[in-house]
Design brief:
Elements lengths: L2 H14 L2 H8 L3 H15 L4 E3 L4 E3 L1 H26 L6 E7 L1 H18 L3 E7 L13 E5 L7 E7 L3 E5 L1 H7 L15 E2 L7 E6 L2 E6 L5 E2 L2 H9 L5 E4 H9 L4 E3 L4 E3 L7 E6 L6 H14 L5
Parallel strand pairs: 3-4, 3-5, 8-11
Antiparallel strand pairs: 1-2, 5-15, 6-15, 7-12, 7-13, 9-10, 9-14
Helix pairs in contact: 1-2, 1-3, 1-4, 2-3, 5-8, 5-9
């Protein structure tokens, strides 16, 4: 039997004034409580209680031990309660690694409202497009692009690969809107140019499939630069719907060729919230994942 159980039996006897009262409080027999107190005395190598058939009293060692151990057990119970509260409430510090584009264009603008709903929570957000070991780096969760490979992680899909073509109203006022993918050959197309992308945009509508070789006077490997150029009226871009959703709602960008699905690359661009596998998902992680799912939820994903 663990020593803490024995200590609690001893404290109960002293606090309740008798073995029988302690036994009733613990729903045990008197003999069981007595055995636990005797076992504690044997473990300590000192008598804690002077016993008669009707009464007991603390020995000098017992009195000293009682005062000290009562304080320690109360502190332990308080710490246990505090620790358990983290499994019951959304509180503490949440460390999240977020994909830069998703964070900058959709997640971070919504964070103030999320924190207002969860005043006991603090966020530490690390922006990176690299997949890292979450446990080793101390992250509670991450937002990643692409297929999850690590079986030690749990994933929850936030968004499918739903890309759209868009540009600014100012650009369209000057150059007009493309009505068919083939029209893009006459437009300035801003090219997103990391390693796995190219200059060919692939469109599909029903049975119709068309590939268009696009060109323009700007290419970049940064999605924020891509979007800023489009908002500034430079040309047309292909972007994930969630990245330009707010800009379209505010009227600074406008979608074109909405009757076509578009893929500028074969790279899987589905977005996931991922977190370490655990039988007990903390309330703070669950709350943030639910927040992300609601944020990305749209009829197009």
């Amino acid at each position: 039997m663990d020593e803490l159980t024995l200590i609690r039996a001893f404290l109960s006897v002293v606090d309740h004034g008798s073995f029988s009262a302690a036994a009733r409080e613990k729903n045990m027999t008197v003999s069981s409580v007595a055995r636990q107190v005797s076992a504690l005395e044997e473990a300590l190598g000192v008598r804690l209680l002077n016993r008669t058939t009707r009464h007991h009293s603390l020995t000098e060692a017992g009195d000293l031990y009682y005062e000290q151990v009562r304080t320690l057990v109360r502190q332990l119970d308080s710490l246990r309660h505090q620790a358990a509260s983290y499994q019951e409430a959304v509180k503490g510090t949440l460390r999240a690694q977020l994909r830069t584009s998703a964070a900058m264009h959709l997640i971070l603008p919504a964070v103030p409202a999320f924190l207002a709903e969860n005043p006991g929570l603090r966020l530490y957000i690390h922006l990176s497009d690299h997949l890292v070991d979450l446990v080793e780096n101390g992250f509670d969760l991450a937002v990643w692009l692409g297929v999850l490979q690590d079986s030690n992680l749990i994933s929850r899909k936030l968004s499918g690969s739903h890309r759209i073509v868009c540009g600014s109203p100012r650009y369209f006022d000057i150059h007009g809107e493309p009505q068919h993918p083939a029209d893009l050959s006459k437009h300035n197309c801003i090219v997103y140019d990391p390693d796995h992308y190219g200059r060919t945009w692939r469109f599909r509508s029903g049975k119709e499939s068309i590939e268009v070789r696009v060109a323009g006077n700007l290419q970049t490997n940064n999605s924020s630069a891509l979007m800023a150029a489009a908002v500034g009226g430079l040309g047309l871009i292909v972007s994930q719907e969630w990245m330009v959703r707010t800009a379209i709602a505010e009227g600074v960008l406008r979608q074109v060729l909405s009757g076509y699905s578009v893929r500028p690359t074969d790279f899987d661009a589905e977005l996931y919230a991922v977190y370490p596998h655990s039988s007990r998902l903390s309330p703070k992680t669950r709350a943030f994942v639910d927040f992300l799912v609601g944020l990305f939820k749209t009829s197009g994903t």
